[in-house]
């Protein structure tokens, strides 16, 4: 893994972000990166696949130089696009991506498949574009394995900059052929100034409030969170506990059915997907967040979930699993509690540990806040991302284009 010195460059850069749906509530990390680059004086443009649906839409960052979409927002035109043969649709997208590359100094691609796709589209350009590809979760697990590990071979061969969000993914990239010197671990983070650290004080009569914030998909392990909560309730009749699930997704109906079957409907609430500000309010009223991530049947895995970081920044206890890069965020018994994947008994024990030991909970949350401020602080990480963009340019001797 490369951690060498980064070369200084002072001119504003033209930075392009290639994204999927934009602006998307569940991808605040991309919004933070974009806002961070704009705040540092760079010209930022975005090429997105399509617009976010109203229920998924976040506020678009101010100060964008350009925002364009591959898919038309005109229903008639988008319908025509959908009916085109795949090769023609891909050719049209590739044309847009080539123009995007020539208009910018560097291209940041969140998710490996965009990095591979943009490189393929721009293979005729000279000089080759500078692409920084950030690898998160699905793009390093299910999607990579489905392609026999060859999905990113061109990125590896052309020595593009590879930015996994964890040491865990760094090792996997190397297993599939990436050179260690092309890899820079670039973690996701949160705006610590948006999350006031407030350790929880709870009287003996107050309920212990558990929360989760995520998409309702298999890898989030919500079935095991619910079963673990039910076990904790049955083992501690002297405690009053509540569990709020924030989010939505394909497993919502089955999770609600599980809650009914376990007889805990009066203790569990489903709040739906909420704007980021309301999520912060939900964390403020909660004692602990549980997110027991698992490897899904099709191989999908997490990176390092932002919801855990937000809870840790807020003084909320965290319960998760030994999964993917999560142990790089949470040290068991020091900054949170970790269970083995799918182990409902351990999850129940961890819930009761936090519920019965408020002093321990405060110690864990204080340590957790320090971890976030030091290693998962988006301000520091955006400084790093800016320097990585500069390095991508100066390593090749290509100066940034004029932004005037």
TrEMBL record:
Pfam families attached to this UniProt entry: Glyco_transf_4, Glycos_transf_1
InterPro entries: Glyco_trans_1, Glyco_trans_4-like_N, Glycosyltransferase_grp1
Record domain Glycosyltransferase subfamily 4-like N-terminal: where: 27-193
Gene3D superfamilies: Glycogen Phosphorylase B
Domain Glycosyl transferase family: 197-370
GO molecular function: glycosyltransferase activity
Keyword Mitochondrion: no
Keywords: Transferase
Transmembrane segments: none
Source superkingdom: Bacteria
The protein's name in its UniProt record: Colanic acid biosynthesis glycosyltransferase WcaL
Source species of the chain: Hyphomonas atlantica
